[in-house]
Every structure is written in structure tokens, then in C-alpha cells.
């Protein structure tokens, strides 16, 4: 097991080595404004047995939980996903997923509503690269509290209060990634806390190596356009007596577009709610490659949605150019296959569907450089289980919005220390695509949540007691009336056509 | 009725004369019916090309997508929600053809709508042909105009709904039966049932109607008190060569078509064309009186409601008892077209799912019944029935709009009561239709 703790500050912020004190296995520093990433790398054999068995059957498995609370991110920790519980996996050589996967997930994370992988997971488009994943699962999951409890019992040594305390801090994390790759026989737990003021403080543990980095974004003159520069201080606890300065740069696929968006449903929502994205800028990110040789921009804005099964997009509706243009959309680039267009929510097992739409920013009027604009994504609701009161409120997670830009030909993106791959949307683009992330802003400033709520009309269970009887009575009434008329006709004239002459005479 | 030669000093009489001259020859009626559809078709093309809100029905896109799959050598069921016989996709194969010439491609894409619109006209012509046996040609055309110039019918077919094809099939079936062309009738019946299942309800009516008297061979059966006739001889006299012929040919056609389609397209054909109708849960709001109950039942399968006897599980009983047994038995021999109208009306009214497209199924038979109906005889009754039918639908649509577009939970009690109200209005109208067919016996 080993641990890497990284504080990342913004460009221009840095900390003097003299402000850091290192005593024994503990590092202390002043309060700084930074994002905090904590990564544990655990060997497969160090895991509880049930997880070892389960992972033994898979080629790769990525669990990505994202908080629905809005958070500030900082380069290079920019890769985003819609808030909720994401899972991407590829089964091992057997090519079947164990049904235990769903039960184990429930044991770890609590309220996971997948029945079996075969029923609940969806296939991802086949990719030739060995890194890509084959199946996807998503659902809303508001909190990691169940996982924290599980980890305290199964991962912490007995009577180790500092272990529990550290796990408790996960409740404030913005995201948690658990990645397993069979080729490396290790599992990586990476937690990220938002960019905020916090003191520098970490303590090493006797069992494993702990490395602490206090870094900030840097822009050395040699930096290339597709690269991110980093400088700062590195310390291996229990080994180094003072921090050692460092500076490095790497190519990154996740960059900051320096613009923002918010999402909300247009009212009235009805049974066909439209998700409106309000974007702060219609201009491609300023530091992205501006134009092709023939003058075309190589950047387009996209929205990637993970829609719980209650709501879905209709690929047939999103195929008409005029209709798409009227919504400021260019095209539907990807949608999970298949998506049932008719079934009610309560009979479905599939988690839902992922959607990638290319947005179409309107051109700026002459003279102005940047302009706010909206794009609208038409969606449809399924029928939900009847409920008391006649309404159920559901939360649809914010999409991620980014400008995807093609890097110059030949640009390579080798794995970097902050690499995050297998996000669901990255596999839908070329390996040379850079994602310039647009920051999600809560539409409702009081709640600070990255979800859009819809009130879904359902059958009011409180009024349903008379439905069966009432329907039966009405049908019987109608039936008896019609039968009575038939009997009356029969009694008057039997069932024969009496008068031969009638047909002739008319 | 006025004629052309009549001097027309007063305005009303000139209007009457215009009216009668319009129907005195077939050309004006059929030309305007065709023009109406042509205008709607062209307007539809314009709207589709210029507005994000489409004129063309979603179903037409389903058909044409399916036709495209077929033209690429795949099955039509590759298109989700294609729930029809492959023959429909075959009929629309020209729509999948691309020439690269924009105008020509638009015309090719519309060829299915042209087919449906043409089917409307043929159905209208068949209506006229049946009516003309009991009235003069101008009057027959007046009633055929209820179908031919009906804006609802013309809109539905030019938007690309295939119900018009059903209309022509049913009218052709009725004409064939009334012309005593048994082989043709059998082929049409088998084909129609293959095409859309519901025309099977016409089989008992037609078979019952095809007695020796109606088939015109031999004198009318001697009227004896029925109790005196032994059951066995009643049964043997029921089995006539004509009836056997119809049964054999229609069944053979139906089976042959299904076997052919199954051979070509395999289980997806069975699944989507037929089995889907058995397994579907029909939970989405529609006009059917069972709708709310079906939504409830599908959400709580065999738990909350299992102890109660659930009405929707026996919904087929009143529906089939009326449309397949009682109405054919009592009415078919008195007036076959009106009996078929009553059957269709009962089938649609008592069905577990009901949308406005289904109304077309009985609308095509309406002109055959209306001339002697009490709705036309008694203007107050007729106006009341029409007003109630429209109002009950309007009420439902208003509740449906609130649900669908405003998101108001109108399932209970609004939509439920509205669907029950519409159901009872339909039952009342059905009762009057049935009474009319019976009373006609005494109106000689």
C-alpha cells in the first residue's frame, strides 16, 4: 500500500519551503487555497477476500462517485462527470459478469439498485484499445456514508481512530474514484476535495510510504500548448527532512475552458421536459488551437448526460436537422442502445441511458466577442409508480459540458500523474481530443446542487381505491345497456332479416 | 332535389342547385377529394421542410425507416416500435429509394402518403357503390362525401398513417361479400386480419349473414317455430358450402401470409406483429375506460390488488361478447354494413387501449349506416349525439393536455372520469345504432 497526498494551488500561488515544518512523519504548513487529492494504491492481496474474488473475474473496473454539491476544480484535476455513482467495467476472460457484482456494490455503497449486470448494465461501443471498458452503469447516489461505514469495518485496523477519522473526511469529498486494472494487480482509491482554504497537514503511517506534494500550476516558457506545467514541493514522509522543489509538465486531455454553464428544466415540464443549458460563452476556449488550415474551428461544445431510466432522449426525434437547429443542437453523437421508448419506469431493469449531444453555439453579433447562449435538450418522462399526493419529484444530474478540440496531429497524450481515463465520454472521441471543461454552476444558488429537479405527475394512490370498482361499474353499465338494446331488437324481430322485399324496395 | 334546369331566382335554391350539381356526377366529388389530399400533402412537405414541428406523423417515419431497413436486406423490425406486417414496409419500399435529385426524392418519400390517400379515395368509391344499391347515385355520393371530404380522414392519411389502407380493405371485404364473391372475400378477410388483427371480428358477422337466403340460392327458408327444428338439423343447415369456402380461404390466406413472413423474418415478426399485443401493458393515458386501472395494475402486479378481482383481466369478455357474438348474431342478417359498424364501434369502445386513430376504423362504415339512422331522422338526437361525442372527447383532451404538457396530475379523478364519460357516451350511441338496425325491419 502507498499513499500520495497532493495539494494543488492555482497559477501564481505558491508556498515558501520555509513555511513547511516536517517533524518525524508529520508535515505541517500554513492555510492555503488549494484542491486536495488523496490517492491510496492498494495491492489486490491486501483487499478483503470477497473483493479479491470479485475483482479476480474482471479485466478492469472503475467506480466513480461524484458529489452533487457544486465544487471548484483546479487544473489539472479537471475531469468531470455528472454527479452520482458511475461504474465502467470489462469482464475477464470468461466474458460474463458475476451476479455478485450488484450485491457487492450494495454492500459497499448502500442503495445500489442494479439487479444483475446482465439486466442493469449497458454496453459501450466496442473500442479496439485494451484500455476501454465494455459496460456502463449509473445511478444517483447522494452520499458516501455507507461506503465510509463499510471501509471503517473492513479496511481500517481495529482501534485505529485516525483511520476512521480520515475516512469520515470522505463525507466532504467532491469525488471518489476506485479503479482496478487486472494488468497492474492494484486498486487505486482517489478522493478529491474541492478547491478551498485548508491547512497543510499530513501524517505518515508506519505500514506504507506516504508522499506529499504541495503544487501549483505553472507556466514555464518551454511549455507547449497541449501541456500543463506544475511546480512545487515534494516530501516523502518519514524519509525526507525537508521538502524538495520540483517542476514538471505533461500533456493533459482535461483543461479549463474558463466559462460556465447551468442547467434547468423549462416550465411547465409536463411529460416531455426540456433541459435547458445556459452557457456563458459561445467562444471556443482561448488557448485551444484556433483554426484549421482551411479556417474551420476544430472545437465544438458537447453535453454528456447520464440519464436515470425515468427520463430519456428519443434518438428519432433528435435526427431532424431543422428540429436540432431550433434547439441550438448540431447532432446526437451517441446514445446508449437500446433505449425502450415506451416502458414505464417500474418494469425496467436497465439503469438508464447515456447521451452525447453536440451543441451548436450561435455566432456572436459583429463587434462582441463573447455571448451567453442556450441549448435545449428535449427529453421524455416514463410513467412512475403511483404515489400518495399525485406527484414524485426526481433529480436529473447535471450533464458535463465541454469543448472538445482536436489536438495537432501527432500530439501524444501519455499517461500522466493526474490521468483520469474511462469517463464514458472520452471513449467516444479520438485519442487526440482535448476536453475543455465548462464549469457547472447551480441554477438555484440557494441549494448549490448540480441536479435539476422535475415534478413528475403520477397516479394519486390516495384517490385510487375506487378505480377498480368504478371502472367495473361503468363497464357493466355500458355493457348491460348495449346488451339490453340487442335483446330488445331480438325480441321485436329475431335475428333474421324478415322482409325479403325490404332490400329491393330501398 | 333541384336540378340544373330549374330557374334559380332565390339564393337558397341556387345553393341547392350547386350542391346537387356537385354530386350529380362523380368527377367533382372525387376531384375535390383528391385535391384536398394533394393540398394537404404539399402543405405537409412545406411544413416539414420549414418548421421544427413536423406535419408528418411519427408512424410514417417508423414505416419509412422500416422500409429502408428492408431495402438494405434487413428486417423491418430493426426499426424500434415497428409493429406491423412486413408487407407495409414492402409497400413503402419506393420511399427508401434515393436518386440524388431533391425534388424527386421528396416525391419518392411521399409515395407512401400518396398510397394511403389513394386508398381513401378507393374506399370512398366502394362506399358509393354499396350505397347506390339502396339510393340514387347523387345521394350515394353525398353520403360517401362524409368519408371522402372528411378533413380528419384526409389529414390522417396525408400525415402518413396507414389506417386508410384498413378502410379500403374493410370496404373491399364488405363489397365482395355483398356481391357474393366468396373467394375474394376470403382472401381479403385473411389479408386484413394479417394486416391489423381486429378485422377478425367481421368473420362471425359475415358467416352468419351468408345464409341460403342471402346467398341467393334457393327460396327463403320456411318460417317455422324454431323449437320445432331439431338442433342437429339446424346445425347441419348452418354449414353451407359458401360458409366453408369462406372459412377455408380466409384461414388459408391468414396462415399462408404468416408462415411466409415467419419464414422470411423469423421470431421478430411474431413478436412485434402479434405477441406484442398480448404482452403490452398499455399504461400510458388513452381514451380507454380501462386505462387508469391498467396503470395501477401494471405498477402493483399481484400484490396490492391481487386479492380483488381485477376488472381489466376480464376486459376481453364484454368486448368480444358484443363485437364477435351478440352483435353479429342479432344484427348481421338485418343489415350487414350497419352490423359491422356496430361491431367495430363496440370493439373500439370496449378495447383496453383506444386512440383517435381507432375512430377511423368505424368512420369508414358510418356513411353506410347514416342514411337511415335516427341521428339524421331526428335532428335533435343527431346533434346531441355528435355534441356529446365531441364534448366527452374534448373533456378528456383537456385533462390529457393538463397532464401531458402542464404536468398536472390529472390521472385521478379527471382523466379517469373523462374516459368513463366518453365510454358511456359511446355505449349510448352504440345502443341507438343497434336500435336503428332493429327498427328498420318495421319501417317498410
From TrEMBL, chain A:
InterPro entries: Pbn1, PIG-X/PBN1. Residues 278-299 are annotated as: Disordered. It is found in: Endoplasmic reticulum membrane. Its main location: endoplasmic reticulum. The chain crosses the membrane at residues 472-491. One of its GO terms (biological process) is GPI anchor biosynthetic process. Keywords: Endoplasmic reticulum, Glycoprotein, GPI-anchor biosynthesis, Membrane, Transmembrane, Transmembrane helix. It comes from the Eukaryota. It is a single-pass membrane protein; Single-pass type III membrane protein. GO terms for cellular component: endoplasmic reticulum membrane; glycosylphosphatidylinositol-mannosyltransferase I complex. Signal peptide: none annotated. One of its GO terms (molecular function) is mannosyltransferase activity. Pathway: Glycolipid biosynthesis; glycosylphosphatidylinositol-anchor biosynthesis. PANTHER family: PROTEIN PBN1. Belongs to the PIGX family. Required for proper folding and/or the stability of a subset of proteins in the endoplasmic reticulum. Component of glycosylphosphatidylinositol-mannosyltransferase 1 which transfers the first of the 4 mannoses in the GPI-anchor precursors during GPI-anchor biosynthesis. Probably acts by stabilizing the mannosyltransferase GPI14. This is Protein PBN1. It comes from Chaetomium strumarium. The lineage of its organism: Eukaryota, Fungi, Dikarya, Ascomycota, Pezizomycotina.
From TrEMBL, chain B:
Its EC number is 2.4.1.-. GO terms for biological process: GPI anchor biosynthetic process. GO terms for cellular component: endoplasmic reticulum membrane; glycosylphosphatidylinositol-mannosyltransferase I complex. One of its GO terms (molecular function) is GPI mannosyltransferase activity. Belongs to the PIGM family. InterPro entries: PIG-M. It is an enzyme of class 2 (transferase). Mannosyltransferase involved in glycosylphosphatidylinositol-anchor biosynthesis. Transfers the first alpha-1,4-mannose to GlcN-acyl-PI during GPI precursor assembly. Required for cell wall integrity. Pfam families: Mannosyl_trans. Pathway: Glycolipid biosynthesis; glycosylphosphatidylinositol-anchor biosynthesis. Keywords: Endoplasmic reticulum, Glycosyltransferase, GPI-anchor biosynthesis, Membrane, Transferase, Transmembrane, Transmembrane helix. It is a multi-pass membrane protein. This is GPI mannosyltransferase 1.
Amino acid at each position: 500500500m502507498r499513499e500520495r497526498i497532493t495539494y494543488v494551488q492555482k497559477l501564481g500561488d505558491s508556498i515558501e519551503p520555509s513555511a513547511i515544518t516536517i517533524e518525524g512523519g508529520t508535515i505541517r504548513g500554513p492555510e492555503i487555497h488549494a484542491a486536495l487529492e488523496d490517492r491510496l494504491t492498494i495491492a489486490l492481496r491486501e483487499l478483503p477476500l470477497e473483493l479479491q474474488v470479485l475483482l479476480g473475474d474482471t479485466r478492469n473496473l472503475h467506480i466513480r462517485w461524484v458529489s452533487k454539491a457544486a465544487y471548484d476544480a483546479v487544473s489539472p484535476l479537471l475531469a468531470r462527470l455528472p454527479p452520482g455513482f458511475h461504474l465502467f467495467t470489462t469482464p475477464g476472460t470468461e466474458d460474463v459478469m458475476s451476479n455478485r457484482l450488484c450485491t457487492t456494490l450494495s454492500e459497499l455503497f448502500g442503495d445500489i439498485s442494479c439487479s444483475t449486470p446482465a439486466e442493469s448494465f449497458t454496453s459501450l461501443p466496442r473500442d479496439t484499445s485494451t484500455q476501454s471498458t465494455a459496460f456502463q452503469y449509473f445511478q444517483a447516489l447522494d452520499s458516501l456514508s455507507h461506503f465510509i461505514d463499510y471501509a471503517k469495518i473492513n479496511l481500517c485496523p481495529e482501534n485505529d481512530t485516525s483511520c476512521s477519522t480520515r475516512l469520515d473526511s470522505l463525507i466532504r469529498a467532491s469525488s471518489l474514484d476506485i479503479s482496478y486494472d487486472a494488468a497492474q494487480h492494484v486498486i487505486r482509491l482517489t478522493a478529491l476535495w474541492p478547491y478551498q482554504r485548508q491547512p497543510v497537514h499530513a501524517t505518515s503511517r508506519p505500514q506504507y510510504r506516504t508522499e506529499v506534494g504541495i503544487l501549483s500550476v505553472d507556466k514555464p516558457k518551454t511549455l507547449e500548448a497541449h501541456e500543463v506545467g506544475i511546480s512545487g514541493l515534494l516530501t516523502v514522509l518519514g524519509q525526507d527532512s525537508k521538502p524538495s522543489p520540483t517542476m514538471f509538465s505533461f500533456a493533459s486531455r482535461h483543461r479549463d475552458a474558463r466559462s460556465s454553464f447551468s442547467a434547468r428544466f423549462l416550465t411547465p415540464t409536463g411529460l416531455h421536459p426540456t433541459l435547458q443549458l445556459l452557457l456563458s460563452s459561445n467562444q471556443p476556449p482561448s488557448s485551444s488551437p484556433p483554426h484549421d488550415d482551411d479556417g474551420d474551428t476544430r472545437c465544438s461544445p458537447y453535453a454528456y448526460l447520464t440519464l436515470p431510466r425515468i427520463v430519456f432522449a428519443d434518438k428519432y426525434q433528435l435526427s431532424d436537422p431543422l428540429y436540432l437547429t431550433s434547439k441550438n443542437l448540431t447532432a446526437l453523437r451517441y446514445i446508449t442502445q437500446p433505449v425502450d421508448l415506451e416502458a414505464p419506469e417500474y418494469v425496467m431493469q436497465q439503469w438508464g441511458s447515456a447521451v452525447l449531444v453536440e451543441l451548436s453555439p450561435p455566432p456572436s453579433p459583429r463587434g462582441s466577442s463573447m455571448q451567453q447562449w442556450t441549448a435545449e435538450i428535449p427529453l421524455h418522462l416514463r410513467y412512475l409508480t403511483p404515489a400518495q399526493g399525485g406527484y414524485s419529484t426526481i433529480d436529473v444530474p447535471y450533464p458535463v459540458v465541454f469543448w472538445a478540440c482536436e489536438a495537432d496531429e501527432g500530439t501524444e497524450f501519455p499517461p500522466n500523474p493526474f490521468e483520469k481515463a474511462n469517463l464514458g465520454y472520452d471513449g467516444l472521441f479520438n485519442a487526440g481530443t482535448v476536453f475543455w471543461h465548462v464549469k457547472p454552476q447551480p441554477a438555484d444558488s440557494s441549494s448549490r446542487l448540480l441536479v435539476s429537479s422535475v415534478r413528475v405527475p403520477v397516479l394519486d394512490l390516495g384517490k385510487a381505491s375506487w378505480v377498480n370498482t368504478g371502472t367495473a361499474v361503468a363497464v357493466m353499465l355500458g355493457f348491460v345497456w348495449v346488451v339490453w338494446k340487442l335483446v330488445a331488437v331480438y325480441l321485436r324481430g329475431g335475428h333474421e332479416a324478415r322482409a325479403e322485399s325490404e332490400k329491393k324496395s330501398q | 332535389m333541384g336540378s340544373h334546369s330549374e330557374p334559380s331566382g332565390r339564393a337558397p335554391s341556387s345553393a341547392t342547385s350547386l350542391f346537387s350539381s356537385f354530386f350529380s356526377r362523380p368527377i367533382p366529388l372525387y376531384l375535390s377529394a383528391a385535391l384536398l389530399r394533394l393540398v394537404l400533402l404539399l402543405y405537409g412537405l412545406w411544413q416539414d421542410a420549414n418548421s421544427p414541428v413536423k406535419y408528418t406523423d411519427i408512424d410514417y417515419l417508423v414505416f419509412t425507416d422500416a422500409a429502408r431497413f428492408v431495402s438494405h436486406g434487413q428486417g423491418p423490425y430493426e426499426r424500434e416500435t415497428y409493429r406491423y406486417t412486413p408487407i407495409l414496409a414492402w409497400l413503402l419500399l419506393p420511399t427508401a429509394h434515393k436518386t440524388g435529385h431533391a425534388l424527386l426524392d421528396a416525391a419518392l418519400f411521399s409515395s407512401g402518403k400518396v398510397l394511403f390517400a389513394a386508398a381513401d379515395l378507393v374506399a370512398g368509391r366502394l362506399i358509393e357503390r354499396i350505397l347506390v344499391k339502396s339510393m340514387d347515385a347523387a345521394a350515394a355520393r353525398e353520403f360517401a362525401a362524409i368519408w371522402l371530404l372528411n378533413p380528419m380522414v384526409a389529414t390522417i392519411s396525408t400525415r402518413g398513417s396507414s389506417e386508410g389502407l384498413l378502410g379500403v380493405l374493410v370496404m373491399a371485404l364488405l363489397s365482395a361479400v355483398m356481391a357474393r364473391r366468396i373467394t375474394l372475400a376470403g382472401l381479403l378477410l385473411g389479408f386484413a386480419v394479417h394486416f391489423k388483427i381486429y378485422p377478425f371480428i367481421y368473420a362471425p358477422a359475415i358467416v352468419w349473414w351468408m345464409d341460403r337466403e342471402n346467398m341467393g340460392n334457393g327460396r327463403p327458408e320456411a318460417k317455422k317455430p324454431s323449437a320445432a327444428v331439431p338442433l342437429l338439423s339446424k346445425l347441419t343447415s348452418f354449414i353451407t358450402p359458401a360458409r366453408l369456402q369462406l372459412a377455408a380461404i380466409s384461414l388459408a390466406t391468414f396462415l399462408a401470409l404468416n408462415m411466409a413472413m415467419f419464414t422470411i423474418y423469423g421470431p421478430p415478426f411474431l413478436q412485434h406483429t402479434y405477441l406484442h399485443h398480448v404482452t403490452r401493458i398499455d399504461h400510458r393515458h388513452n381514451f380507454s375506460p380501462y386505462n387508469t386501472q391498467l396503470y395501477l395494475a401494471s405498477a402493483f402486479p399481484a400484490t396490492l390488488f391481487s386479492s380483488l378481482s381485477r376488472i381489466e383481466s376480464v376486459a376481453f369478455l364484454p368486448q368480444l361478447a358484443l363485437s364477435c357474438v351478440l352483435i353479429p348474431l342479432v344484427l348481421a342478417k338485418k343489415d350487414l354494413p350497419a352490423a359491422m359498424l356496430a361491431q367495430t364501434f363496440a370493439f373500439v369502445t370496449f378495447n383496453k387501449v383506444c386512440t383517435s386513430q381507432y375512430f377511423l376504423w368505424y368512420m369508414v362504415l358510418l356513411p353506410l349506416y347514416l342514411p337511415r339512422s335516427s341521428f339524421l331522422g331526428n335532428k335533435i338526437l343527431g346533434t346531441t349525439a355528435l355534441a356529446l361525442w365531441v364534448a366527452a372527447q374534448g373533456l378528456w383532451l383537456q385533462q390529457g393536455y393538463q397532464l401531458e404538457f402542464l404536468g398536472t396530475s390529472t390521472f385521478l379523478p379527471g382523466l379517469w372520469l373523462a374516459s368513463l364519460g366518453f365510454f358511456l357516451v359511446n355505449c349510448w350511441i352504440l345502443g341507438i345504432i343497434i336500435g336503428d338496425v332493429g327498427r328498420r325491419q318495421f319501417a317498410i
